Amino acid sequence: MSPRRNNLRPNRAAGHVLILGCSDRKRAAKGKLPGLDLYDGVNFRVVRAFLNQYGWPPGLCIKILSAKYGLIDATALIETYDQQLDEASARQLNRATLNELARFGKPCSVFVNLGNDYLPAIHGIDRLFHGKVAYAEGASGSRWPR
Asked: How far is CA 109 from the centre of its chain?
């Protein structure tokens, strides 16, 4: 897989932010892998295929809302786990998640692709990014904008 960039300095505005929910389906791995490589659900496969074909677009920051690790960079090294995020746990992550997202300043756009149980973790994101947030619609695996 080609090298990836995902790190932005704190308080430096990202051009575009993509927030993905973690996936129950994970690649078999010993040790740690970047989250984008570990999770193997359809959304992660689509993003990896895009990045492999076109490279990492300048200004794109991909975040993953993980049931175990909270909001992480897609390049963060993590170990496999078996845990799901329920609505109550997502609510507990809300403050830390919004604080982390606030570090982006004023991005051009924020695209959110999360299941319903994960949405409480980002409740308030619309106030944070004032009209810049778009949400995926439809069943899991088909929630990309048209």
From this structure: 14
Mean pLDDT along residues 68-87: 94
CB 102 within 8 A of CB 128: yes
Confidence tier at 13 by pLDDT (50, 70, 90): low
Per-residue pLDDT reduced to its tens digit, 48-71: 999 999 999 999 999 999 999 999
Contact 48, 142 (CB under 8 A): no
Domains of the chain in sequence order: 16-135 (3.40.50)
pLDDT of residue 144: 47
Return the HEC string of the chain. CCCCCCCCCCCCCCCEEEEEECCCCECCCCCCEEHHHHECCHHHHHHHHHHHHHCCCCCEEEEEEECCCEEEECCCEECCCCCCCCHHHHHHHHHHHHHHHHCCCCCCEEEEECCHHHHHHHCCHHHHHCCCEEECCCCCCCCCCC
